[in-house]
Amino acid sequence: MVTLNPNQGPTSGGNQVVITGTNFTGATSVKFGTKSASFVVDSATQITAVAPSNNASVQVTVTTPGGTTSPVWYYYILFPSKSSLSQTAGPLAGIPVTLTGSNLTTATSMSFGANTAVPTVVNDTTLNVTVPAVATPQTVGVSVTTVGGTTNGLTFTYVGAPTVTGMDPVSGPDYGGTASTITGTNLSDVVDVSYGPDSTAYNIIDDSTIVAYSPGGTGTVPVTVTSVGGSDSSRSFTYTVTPG
């Protein structure tokens, strides 16, 4: 019985395939379908062949002075393609994302810049993966590797969590409208500012400054600044009761 390892490879060919069987001494040809492959006879029970290019499943045979082996199947895997990531930005700690594309069934790894992750294959068009963590904000290329090859073309942006170091003023009338200057770091990516449970209007001045406008409210409430990188609720705002 003849076996192939691996029994699949890219349509471009060029990968080594170890053929195991018997009586290989003096082999004169190895064919992948109608195409001849270069090969080396390692022993009477093993041949190492280089798969030629192709784009369909083919049968592999070995011919020796004693005859030709029974054919065994070899599968050519189409080059993968990517169309989108479910999220293209997230925290430094990483997040679960879904990659959609085609020819993804044989995916073995995904790379986010210099870091790799092992995806879960849902089907031929979908992969689930957890984006690996990094130490600093950055935008990296995303690639996926399958038996058919490696494809690039998407990016993922790591966003640092916002930190708030100051807020002024920290109190205002209960009817709202107080403009408070919030200072800190990583503020240019902020997507929400809330006073207690209520989101409010704000202007991003630069990466270290936001001006937020208090909504109406009562008592003392936490002020939460949120981006895709995380959130900071270290400051609070106190509503003063308006007479009358």
UniProtKB/TrEMBL annotation:
Residues 2-76, 79-159, 161-240 form the IPT/TIG domain. It comes from the Bacteria. Pfam families: TIG. Coiled coil: none annotated. This is IPT/TIG domain-containing protein. It comes from Streptomyces gelaticus.
